């Protein structure tokens, strides 16, 4: 049987995350979203999004088309990870070939994009 090799990434909220002003938190979130949009545009990030339970430590799920080492490197460059907001978990993932298909989409580059017009 053939398998597609993907990488799952998890973003976990750190217990020791720095306190930020609302303005700094908004700017960091915009930088985080822009980073993810750039990875998607480069073709290495297939899907990503927040998890709905805002009280849980598990905050985001990402699917990469690259190996685990490269995915970890890309995630460690995320401004929110660099600022100490998130820890990163990276998991190699085998999926039966063709079981999943990803179509390029427009990823939001800021919270203003998320909110829309």
Helix/strand layout:
Blueprint: E1 3-13, H1 22-41, E2 45-50, E3 58-64, H2 68-76, H3 79-82, E4 86-96, H4 111-115
Antiparallel strand pairs: 1-3, 1-4, 2-3
Structural account:
The protein is of the alpha+beta class. The chain has one domain: Dimeric alpha+beta barrel (Alpha-Beta Plaits, 2-Layer Sandwich). It is 32% helix and 30% strand. A 4-stranded antiparallel beta sheet has the order 2-3-1-4. The radius of gyration is 15 Å and the shape is globular. The mean pLDDT is 95.
Explain briefly what this protein structure is.
The chain contains 4 helices and 4 strands; from the N terminus they run E-H-E-E-H-H-E-H. The chain has 117 residues and is an alpha+beta fold. The N and C termini lie far apart (47 Å).
Order of helices and strands: EHEEHHEH
> Structurally, how many domains make up the residues?
1
Q: Can you name the CATH architecture?
A: 2-Layer Sandwich
- Shape designation: globular
- Which range best describes the helical content: under 10%, 10-25%, 25-40%, 40-55%, 55-70% or over 70%? 25-40%
What fraction of residues sit in β-strands? Answer: 25-35%
Please tag this protein with its features:
single chain; alpha+beta; Alpha-Beta Plaits; 4 helices; 32% helix; globular
């Amino acid at each position: 049987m053939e398998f597609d090799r993907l990488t799952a990434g998890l973003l976990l909220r750190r217990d020791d995350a720095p306190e930020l002003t609302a303005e700094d938190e908004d700017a960091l979130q915009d930088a985080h979203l822009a980073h993810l949009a750039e990875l998607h545009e480069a073709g290495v990030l297939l899907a990503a999004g927040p998890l709905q339970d805002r009280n849980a430590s598990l905050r985001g799920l990402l699917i990469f088309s690259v190996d685990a080492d490269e995915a970890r490197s890309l995630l460690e460059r995320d401004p929110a990870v660099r600022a100490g907001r998130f820890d990163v978990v990276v998991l190699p993932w085998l999926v039966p070939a063709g079981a999943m298909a990803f179509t390029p989409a427009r990823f939001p580059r800021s919270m203003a994009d998320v909110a829309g017009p």
